[in-house]
Amino acid sequence: MNGTPIRQDYLETAIKWISGNKIEDYMGKNQHKEDAKELWKYYEKVIKWIKEIFPTYRREMKGLPWGPLYDEHKGLLVDEDFDVDKMEERVKKLMMDEDVRNKKGIYQYVLNGNEKHLNIRTFNNRQKRQAYESQDGVCVKCEEKFNFEDMEADHITPWSQGGQTIQENCQMLCRTCNRTKSDK
């Protein structure tokens, strides 16, 4: 390496990935090694894996924590049920979904299923108020009456099952019911 800024960025990224963001610890343990072959091999494995899992490059892929994602999901390619084309279709569909506000989070979502990565569009105050009034302030789950401020908007048909963020798919639940419900 000749110390160019781009190479330094790659090196820092690879060390973050392999060390779990504990760069100083990693450097301390490896400071007397003659070369960085282990680090370079790891970096190459991660990059190869990304290209195999997500063959279509999109700018949203840049800067994601690919090392930890690789560590957690590297077995996907040996899973006989895994289909790269289906994965690409999921990514493409989510990229076009206007309810998905965090397009970068799509990759983490398709790997681990956690919707928090998507920052899905939430119902606006008008939609929430309309649902609240039409329910007379009653939580549809526990059937108790609550103040508007003590309730949260919920997708009747979950977003993950194709439910849209539209008035007809909005219901109000008390905080307790909303936080304990499953994706049904």
Note down, in words, how this protein is organized.
This protein has 184 residues and is mainly alpha-helical. It has 2 domains: 5-118, no CATH class; 125-180, DNA Binding (I), subunit A (Orthogonal Bundle), CATH 1.10.30. 46% of the residues lie in helices and 5% in strands. The protein has helices at residues 5-19, 23-30, 37-53, 66-73, 84-96, 105-112, 125-134, 175-180, and strands at 151-155, 170-174. Strands 1-2 form a two-stranded antiparallel ribbon. Helix 1 crosses helix 2 and helix 1 crosses helix 3 (37-53). The radius of gyration is 22 Å and the shape is elongated. The model has no long low-confidence stretch (mean pLDDT 89).
Keywords:
2 domains; 184 residues; single chain; 46% helix; 8 helices; mainly alpha
